[in-house]
Design brief:
The chain is an alpha/beta fold. The chain has one domain (3-361): TIM Barrel, CATH 3.20.20.70. It has 15 helices and eleven strands. It has helices at 3-8, 12-20, 24-32, 39-45, 54-69, 107-119, 138-149, 164-172, 187-193, 202-206, 208-214, 231-248, 276-289, 303-309, 346-355, and strands at 72-80, 88-89, 124-128, 154-158, 175-179, 194-196, 219-222, 253-257, 294-297, 316-318, 359-361. Helix 13 (276-289) links the parallel strand 8 (253-257) and strand 9 (294-297). The longest helix has 18 residues, at 231-248. The chain is globular, with a radius of gyration of 20 Å.
Length: 370
């Protein structure tokens, strides 16, 4: 059974109510659980009842993180290759209906971006490609990935959903990680925010992580865009999706990100705000749910928030991010996908981490064999 079929058996309102119905006793039981925690434990930990337990939740999350990951924080940076898009999404500045200047980097521009990032110390890069299969598809990746591979030991991609064969080819070209966010697991809300293009196909996108796993990609990133609808129910769906993937594609590593909806050109209003306290609760709940899980906080979040959350459970930070193609080699252009909140330089982020006793690591795992 696919995860799509599994999720179809769930009722959104029932899941939502189950979280709201969790008691303080459920929270205490989840906190005291020995061994692997269940989805029901996770529901208790993100419930309103768990708000009163945020301090012990955070302390336990920090202990588990240090035990598994030591005092390290891995740093990465996004490299935007294009802002072309064949979809119309209500929350994204790159949507096809937004009248912005479009840009796709050529080989010389990609190389200039790589050189600029290497000068900042990065050895791990996240390629963000936009979603335009015809103009920024496999033919483009076959040209650009060999160039990028010369500069970085670890390449991750945030790319439009592809076939299993295409993911396998990306792997052969040096891609070690693929991130695909479902945006929301609520199919009705999903339809309201995806108005044109292939991204309208909820099922195709929800089945994407399985195709990535079948292709043997080393690390798979999951997550929902927090703010489109009830964040607790979307997070329960993410947790269930993670468990499904770990059971069926156990050779892969997994990461979860927590993107909160940010202002952008033509952007939609936040329907269900996630405040800072709730985001900490969610981050720590995922750590207790899975001690091996990599947890990422991006520059969407403020420097103040990231500095205070750094020791609680996160394992990966982006730093110095520009969300427009060519933004590192050419500081003048401004074609942002969304605005960032933490605008410190990578060096400033690294220094802030060191002041908290963390060791910034500028690379991800490097594959010795493939």
């Amino acid at each position: 059974m696919s995860f799509y079929a599994l999720w179809q058996e769930q009722d959104w309102q029932s899941v939502q109510q189950s979280v709201l119905d969790c008691t303080q006793g459920d929270v205490e039981q989840a906190l005291q659980r020995q061994g692997k925690r269940t989805v029901e434990d996770f529901m208790a930990l993100i419930s309103p009842a768990a708000d009163a337990y945020l301090e012990p939740l955070a302390q336990l999350s920090a202990q588990l993180t240090r035990r598994r990951f030591g005092h390290t924080m891995q740093l990465f940076i996004p490299l935007y290759l294009s802002n072309l898009c064949a979809n119309d999404c209500s929350y994204c500045g790159f949507s096809m209906s937004n009248a912005i200047q479009r840009k796709t980097l050529n080989e010389q521009e990609v190389e200039a971006e790589c050189r600029a990032l290497k000068k900042q110390g990065f050895d791990s890069v996240l390629l963000v490609t936009g979603e335009h299969e015809r103009k920024v598809g496999m033919a483009y990746f076959r040209t650009m990935l060999p160039v990028i591979s010369r500069y970085f030991s670890h390449i991750a991609m945030e790319v439009q959903p592809l076939s299993e064969a295409e993911y396998a080819e990306l792997r052969s070209l040096g891609v070690a990680s693929v991130l695909v966010y479902q945006e929301t697991y609520n199919e009705q809300v999903y339809a309201e925010h995806h108005l044109r293009g292939r991204k309208q196909d909820f099922k195709w996108r929800l089945q994407t992580p399985e195709r990535i796993g079948q292709a043997g990609i080393d690390k798979i990133g999951l997550g929902a865009l927090l703010g489109l609808t009830d964040w607790r129910t979307d997070s329960v769906a993410t947790a269930m999706h993670l468990r499904y993937m770990q059971k069926h594609y156990w050779r892969s590593r997994y990461s979860v990100s927590f993107p909160r909806l940010r202002p952008c050109a033509g952007g939609v209003e936040v329907a269900a705000e996630v405040n800072d306290r709730q985001l900490v609760q969610l981050l720590c709940a995922f750590r207790l749910f899975d001690a091996e899980l990599e947890l990422s906080l991006s520059t969407r979040e403020s420097a103040y928030f990231r500095d205070h959350a750094a020791t609680l459970g996160a394992t990966h930070f982006s730093a110095g991010s520009k969300t427009q193609p060519g933004g590192y080699a050419d500081q003048a252009i401004a074609l942002e996908q969304f605005s960032t909140e933490d605008n410190r330089s990578p060096l400033q982020v690294a220094e802030a981490l060191q002041k908290q006793g963390l060791q910034p690591v500028w690379k991800d795992w490097e594959l010795g064999l493939s």
